[in-house]
Each structure stands twice: as C-alpha cells, then as structure tokens.
Amino acid sequence: MLYSLLAFLLATSLYFARIFGYKFRVGRVRLCSLYNISYSSRRRSFSIKLVGIKLHRPRRDSPYWAIIVMDGLDYTDNKCQVSLQRCETKLWILPVLFRFTAGPWIAVTLHGFTVFVNSSKANPWWVEGLRRNLLATILNGETIRLNHSNTKVYLSPLTKSMGGFSDEVETSGLREGEPPEELRVRSSLSQWHILSAWNSRMYTFDDLEAELRRSWVADRGSFVMIAKGCRWTKVPVFGQSQERYRKASTLQLLYALYSFPMNIMRLCRDPISAVDVYASRADITFGDFRLRDAELFHHGAVQMKEEYYKSETRYPGILEDFAWDMFVQAILATFQISAK
Questions:
Q1: Does residue 77 lie in a domain region?
Q2: Would you state the pLDDT for residue 171?
Q3: Which domain of life does this protein belong to (predicted)?
Q4: 75 within some domain
Q5: Range of the domain at 296
Q6: Number of structural domains found in the chain
Q7: Please, what sign has the CA dihedral across residues 212, 215, 219, 220?
Q8: For residue 240, with 0-12 CB atoms within 10 Å meaning exposed, 13-18 middle and 19 or more buried, which class applies?
Q9: Is 146 contained in some domain?
Q10: Spatial separation of the C-alpha atoms in residues 50 and 116, rounded to whole Å
C-alpha cells in the first residue's frame, strides 16, 4: 500500500512538472547505476550519461569504501555552459588514521572540465565564489614554489604596414580558429604552489595559461584560462597532543574514533572542508570579458600595488620573493595595458 502511494505521488508530481515546463527522464536503471539522466526547464538543462557507485572493501593500502562515478555531464543555462567528461568521487574511511589525507573524507577527481561564461557582467554564483577564493589566496597566501613565469603582449597594427616596412605579427590565439585581435596579453606559469594559512589549503598548478584579448576600437574582449594538474589539498596541521596520538597505532585508532563525531559535525557545518579536489585539465572561457565588470580584479590590483610598493620601499633593490615579484609585475602590466 505504501509503495503504491509513493508511486502515485511520484507520477502526479512528474505530470504537473511537465505542465509547468519541467522535464525529467532516466533512460535505464540498474542495481548500482543510472543511465541517460536528463532534466530541462525553461531556463536550464542538465544531462548525464552515467551515474554509478562501486563498493569497495577498505584495506590499509586503500582505505575507501565506495567510488561514485559520473560520465558525460552537460549543463546549460542563460549564463554559462559546463561540460565534464568524467568525475570520480572517492569516499574514505578514517583517512587521517591511515595517513591518506589531512582530514578530508572525500576525494574528487575531474577530467575534461570545461566552462564557458557568456559575459563577465553576469557570472554564475559558483564561478564568482571560485574566483573570490582563488584571488584571496593569491593576494594573501604564500607562494611556496614557482618554476617559471612568463608574460607576453601582442599588438596587432590598426592598418596594414606601409612604405615597404613589415614585421612579424603573432596571429594565432590560445584556442584554434580564433581571429587575430589588436591586443593580446598572455601569461603562463608552471609548477605554481600557493599555501593559504587561514584554511590550511594548498593550491597547486602544474601548468597555467591565461590570455586576455581586447579590441582597440570596439568595447569587447574575451578571457581564456587553461589549467593543467590542478589540486586543492588540505595541508596537515598537528598540535603536540595530536602528534602524541599519531605515534602509537592503538592511540591512533582511539583518537580517530573519538574525533569521528566532531568530523561529522564539521562536515554538516562546512561540507567543502571535507573535500580534496584534483582536476587533470580545466578550461574556463569568458566570451565577453570586461575588467570594469569584475570588481574583484580591481580590488586585487589595488592590493597588489600596495603590497608590491610596500615591499620595494622596505627592501629597496632587493627581491624579497622573486616568484612574487615576477608574478606581481606580470599582473600589473596586464591591468595597466588592458585598462586603456
């Protein structure tokens, strides 16, 4: 009787949802997986080819109990388009005890993550939050490592060369098929590690490329960022009392069981604190990008200038942090040129 009532309520809900423009469909259902899931409304659409869960018996060398797999995710609304080839979510059991993480119970791995934002005037809330978090880390965090930093500015002429004088002009963009623009500012970084002390997180980029394209006459531009090998990892911070428990296996187990309720409360209060993220490649593109629409960039440029000039005044002629100095010079050059 109860199952019949639930089925009737579900069928009624789906019927009225279709009347109001909402459509939900599941192509096939198996024991631990769903196939060809789609949802659409007047403002947004969402589809995913596969959602499945694989159970696993925890072992000391692999202490996780399940992996949630999602393939072929696509999301579209009036602000952005998002696609994800594959997402693997690994659920740990007592990860600190087995020293696999510094606290997070969930490890998320993303492959083929692509975001296209139509205009910087209307950012999705999660893009705004991601940019705010990353910008705060760049401004207030500590650069642990930076192997290489490079910034180039390409200026295309307004008219063709005259009088027989010509020079090489860079025409290829960061993406294939893009027409040459009058101004392009490209920055590239490799092996960039940033530590944010306030949340004990390490941001790691194996390779990071960003390109800003602007027109001399038309008030338009675009921004492309390609990041490879991105990691957002919790860094262990142990006090003397915790370190004492980590020395003996029995005390480790007792301390892990004792702290389990507190970890559950922390997970409910701040879910993102229980997650480590790795993305093999992430492509983020703004089709229409204007710096005056991004207030965070303005505040960031002002703070960068203040910190940079303060450091130059305090230590004249000495590079306190050569990585920070190179990075700030590149960012300042980008803002000064693109603001004109």
A1: no
A2: 46
A3: Eukaryota
A4: no
A5: 95-156+180-338
A6: 1
A7: negative
A8: exposed
A9: yes
A10: 23
**Tokens 């005037």 sit at which residue?**
121
Structural contact between residues 70 and 84, judged by C-beta atoms closer than 8 angstroms = yes
Is the separation of the CB atoms in 49 and 71 below 8 Å? yes
The separation between the first and the last C-alpha atoms of the chain, rounded to the nearest angstrom, is 71
Q: Name beta bridge partners: 171.
A: none
Rounded (5°) CA angle 206-134-205: 5
Residues 174 and 117: beta-carbon distance below 8 Å: no
Q: What is the pLDDT of residue 167?
A: 45
Q: Is 16 helix (H, G, I), strand (E, B) or coil?
A: helix
DSSP codes of every residue in 211-267 = EEEE-SSSS-EEEEEEEEEEEEEEPP---HHHHHHTSSHHHHHHHHHHHHHHHHHHH
How many whole angstroms separate alpha carbon 249 and alpha carbon 246?
A: 7
> Identity (one letter) of the amino acid at 191?
Q
pLDDT of residue 140: 78
Residues 174/211, Cβ–Cβ less than 8 Å: yes
pLDDT of res. 52: 92
Give the span between the Cα atoms of 105 and 119, in whole angstroms. Answer: 36
Compute CA distances 24 → 68, 85, 153, 237, 319, whole Å.
21, 21, 48, 45, 58
The two tokens of residue 287 are 């089709």
Residue 313 has phi, psi (to 5 degrees) of: -70, -40
Asked if residues 193 and 203 have their Cβ atoms less than 8 Å apart, the reply is: yes
State the 10-residue block means of pLDDT for the chain, 340 residues long. 63 65 82 89 89 87 87 92 94 71 82 91 83 78 87 66 43 51 80 85 91 73 90 72 50 65 70 85 87 57 63 56 58 48
Six-digit token string for 337: 């040129």
Give CA–CA dist 146/323, Å, rounded. 6
Residue type, 320: E
Extract the tokens encoding 306: 């203040």
pTM given for the model = 0.71
Q: How far apart are CA 230 and CA 216, in angstroms?
A: 34
Asked whether residue 62 is assigned to any structural domain, the reply reads no
Q: Which of 24, 26, 127, 112 is nearest to 71 (CA)?
A: 112
